[in-house]
Amino acid sequence: MGTRKGPFNDIWKDTNVLNDTVEIIDHEVHTKIFAEDGREFIIYTDLNRWEEYLCKFAPEDSVKIKKMCSDMKKSAFLQPFSDPAGLRKIGSSVTLMLKMMPVMVLFMKYGRKSCDEYFSKLGFKNESLNYFFNSIYGSHDFSALAFIMMFAWFNQKNAGYLIGGSLPMAKRMTSRYLDLGGKLRTRSRVTKIIVENNMAKGVILSDGTEIKADYVISAADGHSTIFEMLGGKYVNKKISNAYEKWELFTPIVQVSFGINKKIDSEIPVEMWLIRDQMIGRTKTKNGYSIMNYGFDHTMSPEGKSVIVMRFDSPWELWKDIDDKEYKREKEQIEKDSKTILEKHYPGISDSVEVCDVATPITDVSYTGVWKGSYEGFMPSSKNLMDNLHSTIPGLKKFYMAGQWLFPGGGLPPAGQSGKWAIQYICKEERTGFKTK
Predict the structure, then answer these.
(1) Contact by Cβ (8 Å): 318, 276
(2) What is the DSSP string of 93-161?
(3) CA-closest candidate to residue 317, choices 271, 285, 356, 270
(4) 422 three-state secondary structure
(5) Sheet holding 210-212, edge to edge
(6) Could you tell me if 90 and 81 are in contact, meaning their C-beta atoms sit under 8 angstroms apart?
(7) Which residues are CB-neighbours of 23 under 8 A, at least 6 positions away?
(8) What residues have CB less than 8 Å from 136, skipping those under 6 apart?
(9) Which residue among 28, 190, 358, 394 has its CA within the 20 to 30 Å range from the CA of 264?
């Protein structure tokens, strides 16, 4: 989000995530979806095109489809705040709120509703339309408002794909940080935040090294930070409620294939709504997706392809697994995934050169993410209108940043919360905040 304009775009440019050399792709198709019985459904990123497609798909629901697409277009007026609470200029806030008046109605109507409730109120008559919408967005308490707003970003071509993916992006940000005089210490997991007289004083690493600091900002896993690094000593009712009651994203397994042949695809992502498909010990509830990275020339050598399969896999299947079981499970997942891939691309098995299986355990091992929830709290009818604060009650010289502050997680609010933490520090230090 924010590849073209707005406050997120400003952050990406300030941190060198985006610059004049970065190529961005705005896909015409978001996802093509297949039901078990062969029915197909397409999600287009252009709302006018999608509205036209949906009206042909379910002509009996044309009025309701146009109402839904109208809601989505109105949400384009939504603009995230550039500055954090307490540091916003009154004039700028009022101006922004006036610009967002059309979307305020949506907040009032749908801010506390789930997709189930939203679809039910729209009352689609077409069985297939109901099936696809409910299968994709109705299986959890997924926020209706999040569903509506998401498509506005695509429609504005303001949520594109960065050629090269995440690694070059991280390197560009790192380069910017180092050029500004920052220092980076890798392979240094923090186990404890040093606190004296309710004031953060530094961190202790897993090898026992102590690093003193004037301020500590944790962009690490939220649960690990609050309940392990800080020992659960600084928790209020709001924090407890979030970690005890807010629904999490179900962890995923990602199986990546390196294919020794060129496989073209006009669709970047295909989703197969197949229930009870066994992949290893996981019985699929929402099926699986297949992503062909043929649109990104950096992902594989000439004449070869990268294809990625992803599927939800509940944390309960992984949390107590031992090393031997884990090895067997990854081998079984690879075998089952190749069988599925062969079904979609007959004859492809002989061309698989590389296969990498990343599991919820992988995510936890590398990032410490709580219960393997790769994007933190699910944006639901109960929490989308809420968020956790950058500060921790009773603890000074400490700030939180990252995806666990905002339901829905992801990169944009993580980047934004990092900026906001620095702005709060600048206020404490009584110095000006500068982005360049």
Answers:
(1) no
(2) HHHHHHHTHHHHHHHHHHTT-BHHHHHHHHT---HHHHHHHHHHHTTTT-BHHHHHHHHHHHHTT-S-E
(3) 285
(4) helix
(5) 190-196, 199-205, 210-212
(6) no
(7) 162, 163
(8) 33, 271, 273, 286
(9) 358
**DSSP character at residue 342:** H
Residues 330 and 357 sit within 8 Å (Cβ to Cβ): yes
Position 7: which residue type? P
Q: What is the dihedral sign for C-alpha 242, 247, 249, 253?
A: positive
In this structure, are residues 232 and 226 in contact, taking their beta carbons and an 8 Å threshold? yes
The radius of gyration of the chain from alpha carbons, rounded to an integer in Å, stands at 23
Give the number of other Cβ atoms within 10 Å of residue 327's Cβ: 11
DSSP state of 317: G
The span from the CA of 206 to the CA of 188, in Å, is 7
- Residue 269 and residue 256: Cα distance in Å, rounded? 14
- The 10 Å CB-count burial string (b at 16+, else e) for 151-182 is bbbbbbebbbbbbbeeeebeebbeebeeeeee
Tell me which H or E stretch contains 193.
strand 190-196
Query: Does the reported pTM lie above 0.70?
Result: yes
Place of tokens 């036209």: 52
In the numeric block, which tokens belong to residue 97?
A: 């709120």
Whole-number Å distance between alpha carbons of 123 and 312: 29
Type of residue at 275: R
Amino acid letter at 401? A
DSSP state of 179: H
| pLDDT tens, the chain, 436 aa long | 999 998 999 999 999 999 999 999 999 999 999 999 999 999 999 999 999 999 999 999 999 999 999 989 887 766 777 777 777 777 666 666 666 666 777 777 888 889 999 999 999 999 999 999 999 887 678 888 888 888 888 999 999 999 999 999 999 999 999 999 999 999 999 999 999 999 999 999 999 999 999 999 999 999 999 999 999 999 999 999 999 999 999 999 999 999 999 998 889 999 999 999 999 999 999 899 999 999 999 999 999 999 999 999 999 999 999 999 999 999 999 999 999 999 999 999 999 999 999 999 999 999 999 999 999 999 998 888 788 999 999 999 999 999 999 998 889 989 999 999 999 999 999 887 777 6
How far apart CA 209 and CA 203 sit, in angstroms, is: 8
Q: What angle do CA 91, 94, 100 make, to 5 degrees?
A: 140
